[in-house]
Amino acid sequence: MTAVSEASTEASLAQLLDLSGQVALVTGAGQGVGATIARYLAAQGAAVAVNDYRAERAESVAGQIREDGGTAIAVPADVTDYPAVRSAVERVSGELGPVSILVNNAGNAGAEPRAGRRGPFWESEPADWEPFLAVNLHGVLACCRAVLPGMVHSGHGRLVTVISDAGRVGEAGMEAYSAAKAGAAGLMRALARSLGRHQVTANCVAIGLTDTPTLAAVTGNPELTRKVLSNYLIRRVGRPSDAAAVVTLLASPAGSWITGQTYPVNGGFSVSQ
Ligand SMILES: NC(=O)c1ccc[n+]([C@@H]2O[C@H](COP(=O)([O-])OP(=O)(O)OC[C@H]3O[C@@H](n4cnc5c(N)ncnc54)[C@H](O)[C@@H]3O)[C@@H](O)[C@H]2O)c1
Predict the structure, then answer these.
(1) Hey, what's the torsion of the CAs at 85, 86, 91, 93, to 10 degrees?
(2) Is 53 a residue of the active site?
(3) Which helix (H) or strand (E) holds 245?
(4) Ligand 1 within 6 A of CB of 111
(5) What dotted CATH number matches 13-210+240-267?
(6) Residue nearest to atom 1 of ligand 1 (CA)
(7) Do 142 and 85 form a contact (C-beta atoms < 8 A)?
(8) Do the Cβ atoms of 205 and 250 come closer than 8 Å?
(9) pLDDT tier for residue 80 given thresholds of 50, 70 and 90
(10) For residue 100, which phi and psi values (nearest 5 degrees)?
(11) All structural domains of the chain with their residue ranges
(12) Is the shortest distance between the CB of 52 and ligand 1 below 6 Å?
């Protein structure tokens, strides 16, 4: 457990952000936003299980955290494979302790090998939607289902799901992705209702254009980047740390009275949306 009880009124900010004794599972943490989230949670004292279905990426990030003095293990698994998720959660429980923080970060916006064809939705087939729904929605359902018995049993837990502005306001041409991310936000709100009495919070962080390897096609194209940023009040591309800082706050004792919310981290894009 953390150094700060949920009822504490005198805690310092450092105590409120202290994750000592917590066990975090971060999905899709082999690179990009998820890797930074894993490093931030470890830096605050959490033992971190680094998930990615690309095992070498998960091993690399877990190794970096250990080199920096933190506690981390790699738990490769495909979040869309429920039995594999359950095994991963059992392994985390055995090696680090029961998961008290779940960050659903793994996502597929079309860059993964299993991604549907792009094009008008009215010309699409179910096979084009399935990969988006699988990772961005079914994966979140699977991971929440796997960790929640432990959280409910202990009377403490944090669920944080990384969604997208596409899930908040919708994105033309990304209908299945938008629907899946919006679905994940709906799931967090529903879980917030059912889990509040167990001191388990459930929130989303909705991020805008963020500089990760997967988004290099956009962030490496100055003209395209300028076009996207014309809708942002703060005209820079997001950094993984922008999202990771908010996720860390929601995962910490500082977030104990915040649940059922979606936080936009997007340079003010949401003001006009
Ligand atoms: N980068 C952006 O601009 C942006 C914008 C909006 C939302 N997001 C969301 O933020 C999250 C992180 O984005 P990112 O750009 O860092 O992603 P990324 O593609 O750079 O990294 C995601 C990681 O998840 C892993 N992964 C993919 N499918 C998986 C699965 N089924 N099981 C386990 N691991 C899996 C990948 O191997 C990869 O290492 C995603 O949910 C994404 O949808 C990103």
Answers:
(1) 120
(2) no
(3) helix 240-251
(4) yes
(5) 3.40.50.720
(6) 210
(7) yes
(8) yes
(9) very high
(10) -110, -15
(11) 13-210+240-267
(12) yes
